[in-house]
């Protein structure tokens, strides 16, 4: 299957280091129109962020579980920023959760992104995920894609038509491979496929901190 850098669903690469290409937008040549657009996007992202953190049940569950595990993760760890690639968000231990304010199609899209990235943050907190290890990265991507609703559209679209569980699994697998492919420690697609396949079954089954039947 093809993975390209243009894929609109691709995730901002999880950088194990502090260098982040998504923050490298040069604002010095910004026109007044561009500035006004950026400020509007930032305001909307901040407003939605506030509401999502307050109201989204999955976000509340994840934040509660992280606090109980001793990781204080709060509003200031979510940052709305303009991004210059096609992803909608990212997580790194240094930067927390990055929300790409210029790439959200809708509030539900942003909610899914927040949940997806928060599952990475939870895994980092709870399981000491080492993002330079492709199997670790693959596991947290499988969980994030499976639990965040990234593949929900497919479940709904196919309801009653095919073997839904199989389709959901294949969607999760495909998205996890795509994200691992962007890890700077991943050399080619074969490595990403191997990493995801080697951890898929156990990580797909692990629905912590949600109830068993969440998917
Ligand atoms: Zn991810």
TrEMBL record:
Sample GO molecular function, one term: metalloendopeptidase activity
Class in the EC hierarchy, top level: hydrolase
InterPro entries membership: Peptidase_M76_ATP23 (IPR019165)
Compartments, as annotated in UniProt: Mitochondrion inner membrane
Domain of life: Eukaryota
One BP term from GO: mitochondrial proton-transporting ATP synthase complex assembly
Biased composition (Polar residues): 17-31
Span list, region Disordered: 1-36
EC number of this enzyme: 3.4.24.-
Keywords, comma-separated and alphabetical: Hydrolase, Membrane, Metal-binding, Metalloprotease, Mitochondrion, Mitochondrion inner membrane, Protease
GO cellular component annotations of the record: mitochondrial inner membrane
Gene3D superfamilies: Cysteine Rich Protein
Lipid bilayer topology: Peripheral membrane protein
Pfam families in the record: Peptidase_M76
Membership in a protein family: Belongs to the peptidase M76 family.
Role noted for this protein: Has a dual role in the assembly of mitochondrial ATPase.
Entry protein name: Mitochondrial inner membrane protease ATP23
Annotated source species: Basidiobolus meristosporus CBS 931.73
Lineage: Eukaryota, Fungi, Fungi incertae sedis, Zoopagomycota, Entomophthoromycotina
């Amino acid at each position: 299957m093809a993975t390209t850098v243009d894929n609109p669903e691709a995730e901002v690469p999880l950088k194990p280091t502090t260098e982040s290409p998504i923050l490298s937008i040069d604002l010095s040549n910004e026109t007044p129109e561009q500035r006004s657009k950026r400020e509007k996007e930032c305001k909307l992202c901040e407003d939605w962020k506030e509401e999502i953190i307050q109201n989204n049940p999955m976000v509340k569950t994840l934040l509660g579980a992280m606090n109980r595990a001793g990781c204080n993760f709060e509003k200031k760890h979510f940052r709305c920023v303009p991004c210059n690639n096609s992803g909608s968000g990212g997580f790194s231990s240094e930067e927390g959760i990055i929300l790409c304010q210029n790439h959200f199609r809708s509030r539900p899209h942003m909610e899914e992104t927040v949940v997806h990235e928060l599952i990475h943050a939870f895994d980092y907190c709870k399981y000491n995920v080492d993002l330079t290890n492709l199997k670790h990265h693959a596991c947290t991507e499988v969980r994030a894609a499976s639990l965040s609703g990234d593949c929900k559209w497919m479940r709904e679209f196919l309801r009653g038509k095919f073997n839904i569980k199989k389709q959901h699994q294949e969607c999760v697998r495909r998205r996890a491979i795509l994200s691992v492919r962007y890890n700077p420690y991943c050399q080619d697609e074969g490595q990403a496929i191997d990493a995801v396949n080697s951890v898929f079954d156990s990580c797909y089954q692990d629905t912590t901190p949600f109830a068993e039947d969440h998917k």
